[in-house]
Write a structure and sequence with these properties.
The structure holds two protein chains of two kinds. Chain A is mostly beta strands. Chain A contains two helices and 14 strands, in the order αβββββββββαβββββ. In chain A, strands 1, 2, 4, 5, 8, 9 and 10 form a seven-stranded mixed sheet that branches. A four-stranded antiparallel sheet of chain A has the order 7-6-12-13, with no helix packed on it. In chain A, strands 3-14-11 form a three-stranded mixed sheet, with no helix packed on it. In chain A, a hairpin with a 4-residue loop joins strand 12 and strand 13. In chain A, 21% of the residues are buried. Chain B is mainly β. Helices cover 13% and strands 52% of the residues of chain B. The longest helix of chain B is centred in the N-terminal third of the chain and has 20 residues. The two termini of chain B are 37 Å apart. Classes of the chains: A mainly beta, B mainly beta. At the A-B interface, loops of A face loops of B.
Chain lengths: 208, 263
């Protein structure tokens, strides 16, 4: 009887670890991401889906600007904890964290779009025309266009996956210019860490 | 409704005239059995149609023209001449198999000149044979049996349930940034559809406890549901709506054949 008690006490830690041991979780990789560079391209949305315009002439009713932001990473790895007794293959507890996690150092605070040429009556060259651009997110449950001025309230445009750290945002011009077909646009992206990205399109012909 | 009354009256006339000709024969070859099992199959022929040529027809689990087979059907005779019947029929229609494609095609036909169409429905994709039209009927049966012939006029009532699903499509205008959201939502759905169905079965005995039979049934029910078609501009949320009504009296002639097995 005493021998049984001694054996039980000896095996108690083993039993405890059997119940609490973790699976051999993949090491968690934490990516610290930051917005590093961006570019803009005119888009032609006259087809079923928007595509980068192949020429400087774009239908004005189907015009938009694609904002492409590239995020870059610093990787730090957290080493997995080792178990004393139990091989992870026999583990009973398998609550692994995601093997890839990320944090983004900066947010996009604001996107501004300027017409560099006369756009419409009352909107001469160098006017902020952000209000005329809208974003449509297909996975948005409301299924509606959101004005670019409200789009960043409470959410950030996301990259497709940690293997593809490119954010693409199609901003569609929903009010075509009336002051002339020759147009040029400037896009400013303001980040929460104070940086400002700025880029201009080439001179475009927004044709009827 | 008039046709329902006429058919019922005709069946009763047939029933009573047959009864009038019936002379009881003390030396009957066959007993009056209490239980019948009635496997059968046949066709449903619409006398009035529920479906028109609306896009929403593809969202209703129903077809005016269909085949049926009797999953469960039987009679219990509590009297030599009177009994009750329970019949459960399952309808089969190949129309279900490509209704999603037809839904998209009809929207493309209506809007395809101006828009790129991307349509989806809530229809069940897992149907293999398209069997989704059910009918459950119970009622009273009158039995007239003479030699090898059996005549059973009956009056049945029950339900003809079917489902109404929703569907939607995104219409991207060609050459512009405009995007419209087209939705079809069912409203005021009555899924049971109370049905009255006078019917008659004529059978000929081919074996001691087995008969070949022909069934004819007239069924009638009222539907009262509707679909709301909404076409919304996703930019300014301006919406046009249209109501598609399905308030009809649906009359169907069901003709089939099968066996009557006495127990």
């Amino acid at each position: 009887m005493r021998l049984q008690k001694v054996l039980f006490l000896l095996l108690l830690p083993l039993l405890a670890q059997f119940l609490a041991a973790c699976c051999d979780c993949l090491s968690t990789t934490v990516k610290n991401l930051t917005h590093c560079s961006f570019s803009i391209s005119p888009i032609d949305n006259s087809g079923a889906a928007p595509v980068v315009a192949q020429s400087t002439a774009v239908p004005r009713e189907a015009f938009g600007i694609r904002l492409t932001i590239l995020l870059k990473e610093n990787i730090c790895e957290a080493a997995p904890a080792k178990n004393l007794f139990i091989n992870s293959a026999y583990a009973a507890s398998c609550n692994c964290d995601d093997d890839m996690q990320h944090t983004i150092k900066s947010d996009i605070e604001e996107i501004r779009i300027y017409a560099l040429k006369d756009f419409a009556t009352g909107k001469p060259a160098n006017t902020d025309i952000t209000e005329h651009f809208y974003v449509y997110m297909p996975d948005d449950l409301k299924n509606e266009f959101t004005p670019l001025t409200f789009f960043l309230e409470g959410k950030q445009p996301m990259f497709p996956s940690l293997n593809n750290l490119t954010v693409e945002l199609d901003m569609l011009l929903m009010t075509p210019p009336t002051a002339g077909s020759e147009q040029q646009f400037k896009v400013e992206v303001l980040l929460s860490d104070g940086r400002v990205f700025e880029s201009e399109t080439s001179v475009l012909e927004l044709v009827p | 409704m008039k046709s329902l009354i006429v058919v019922t009256a005709l069946l009763l006339i047939v029933s009573f005239s047959a009864q009038g000709q019936y002379v009881p024969e003390p030396e009957m070859n066959f007993k009056f059995r209490k239980w019948y099992i009635k496997p059968a199959a046949g066709v449903n022929i619409p006398l009035t149609k529920l479906l028109g040529n609306e896009i929403t027809d593809n969202l209703i689990s129903y077809d005016d023209n269909s085949f049926y087979w009797q999953v469960i059907s039987g009679n219990y005779f509590f009297d030599r001449k009177w009994g009750v019947e329970l019949t459960c029929q399952t309808g089969i229609s190949d129309r279900f198999l490509n209704r999603d494609k037809r839904f998209t095609r009809q929207i493309e036909g209506k809007y395809g000149n101006r828009f790129f169409v991307e349509a989806t429905t809530e229809n069940d994709d897992f149907l293999v044979f398209g069997d989704n039209i059910d009918r459950i009927l119970i009622g009273i049966v009158h039995r007239v049996q003479k030699r090898k012939l059996l005549l059973m006029p009956k009056f049945l009532f029950g339900i003809t349930p079917f489902y109404t699903n929703s569907g939607e499509a995104f219409l991207k205008e060609k050459g512009t940034n405009q995007l419209l959201h087209l939705t079809y939502e069912p409203k005021k759905v009555s899924e049971e559809n109370f049905t009255v169905a006078p019917a008659v079965t004529i059978a000929y005995r081919v074996y001691k406890k087995t008969m070949l039979n022909l069934d004819a049934m007239y069924s009638f029910y009222l539907t009262d549901f509707e679909y709301t078609e909404s076409l919304r501009n996703t930019l300014n949320n301006r919406t046009q709506t249209r109501i598609i009504l399905y308030d009809k009296g649906v009359s169907t002639l069901t003709v089939g054949a099968g066996l009557i097995i006495e127990i």
